[in-house]
Amino acid sequence: MAEGEAVAGSGVRVRLDGSRGDVGALKAWLEREEPLGRLVREGKLRIEERARGGEGREHMGVELELVLQLVEGVVATGTLLGWTKRSVDSWKENRRQVERGTTLPEPRVEPFSGPRAEPFSGPRAEPLSEPPSGPRAEPLPDPRIEPPSDPLDPDRE
After folding, report:
1. Distance of alpha carbon 93 from alpha carbon 53, whole angstroms
2. What is the pLDDT of residues 12-54, one digit of tens each?
3. 0.70 exceeded by the pTM?
4. Distance between CA atoms of 70 and 9, rounded to whole angstroms?
5. All domains of the chain, ordered by start, with CATH?
6. Among 27, 146, 39, which residue's Cα sits nearest to residue 91?
């Protein structure tokens, strides 16, 4: 097998020392960011929060990491790694704009090889060769700002 070949079960690990909210926000961002979001919707990529092993440096944040694991070998691991790095950089830039003056986590993106993910029995799509061009996902809303109330909401006070 050639290095970087598309193999089910391979993928990318994203480690960051931050809060559980940081991990959840990054996961939500990656699930929306194209082309990763499309692979998730098609059942060809899973993004999971996992407990981190005891290796590595001491840190003050939660011991979680995100694992992006290919269910089917539709893209090379190197391609997935590049898309993930681009999406993580986009998330960091968005956080810098929204949370000026705060210390932000520094995610580390690296290849991952783990147990094979369960196959998805849904519709098939053609393998991706290049990331699609076009607009990126919208920035996540600021969690400190409450959305406007819905006048049709029966629980509205």
Report:
1. 28
2. 999 987 788 888 999 999 999 999 999 999 999 999 998 876 5
3. no
4. 5
5. 10-113 (3.30.70)
6. 27
